[in-house]
Amino acid sequence: MAFEGLSEKLSAAFKKLRGKGRLSEADVKEAMREIRLALLEADVSFKVVKQFVAQVTEKAVGADVLEALSPAQQIIKIVNQELTDLMGGAAARLTIASKPPTVVMMVGLQGAGKTTNGAKLAGLMKKQNGKRPLLAACDIYRPAAIQQLEVVGSQLDIPVFQMGQTNPVDIAKAAVEHAKKHGNDMVFLDTAGRLHVDEELMDELRAIKAAVEPTEILLVVDAMIGQDAVNAAKAFDDALDIDGVVLTKLDGDARGGAALSIKAVTGKPIKFVGVGEKLDQIEVFHPDRMAGRILGMGDMLSLIEKAEQSFDQKKALELQEKLRKNKFTLTDFYDQMKQLKNMGSLSDIVGMLPGVKASDLEGASMDTKQLQRMEAIILSMTPAEREDPKLLNSSRKKRIAAGSGTQVVDVNRLLKQFDMLQAMTKQFTGGKMPKSLRKMMGKKGRGMPGMGGGFPF
To answer: What is the pTM of this model?
Structure first.
């Protein structure tokens, strides 16, 4: 995950500060040196790092910090605020045209993910804002670009407008007219890219911009390419005056410096981030939340939003009532597994919890194969067996094992885990946390239920 290395190095620098009762200017300057090195290693622009460290140092050596009861916390607060400001301060939303359709022009280098992320963004606007988007295929050069857009469009149930290998400017104009006639209130133009910035590419993009006057021009850049992402952002901004950036592959093994540098170098905000390969894995970029995650403070707001999007409210209320009456069944267990899977990977979820670093998750993962086995076992049961596992005698267990492609030992393991879970829920409803759960949660109570305790999540 991006920022892992940066987060751990910053945590180490702050740990040294916390070990001191009072801080001297020398202590602060030593911490700033480590922060500077951490930022440079994360591929943040040298000029940005220099300015950032100067601003933090100026605030951190003030009397109100050095004489504070907890000066280390004061410095962390300053770094948090400066990181937030560096990335834009507040989330920058997509501009919506007063008179539809809103035209969003997606631009960027080849391979950055324009086609996929343009479709992801259209899907996000459809799902969260109730929009009726149209995808327009304006990339006539890349082999199968039109087909790719049609595939992702069909997966998201979003119409695609295309005119084959004709002039991209004509396609863009026709797409906007098509949207007006067919009630599409947003148009996403998937434009061509190149392996590098060149004048021919920019001329074509300028011509499309002049023809349709887009509401927003969003530059798609790959976080994995580090400083080159910032250079590309500056080149596109100089040529087209972009409105914002979509940063992709932020879930990859990226150093993350692009996210910290783009706003400072171009003055244009990061509006969205791609956090995975699935078509729903795109999020609004919140500088304050990202700063919190970098500093190990977690991101509870994003975790809550993710849970709200993934969990069925009606089912949650039904489950709450069942828990209250101690009627939690294997069917409910299966539903919870499915909804937890919809939230994404375990590292993504736990990474949003305060005080949890990537290194804390070493060796812990959501065992997808075990989850699949458990799902297969439950689905091989009859409705009556799911409601009352006491019905499961040896012959029934053999039948379930054969039907799910597993062994009887796997069926017994699932039933044992379910019994443990039922015992926990009974104690929860009484308001008491069992010792077994406290033990599973780890010495500091920071773990996730099941890490090393038998559960797959």
So the answer is: 0.66
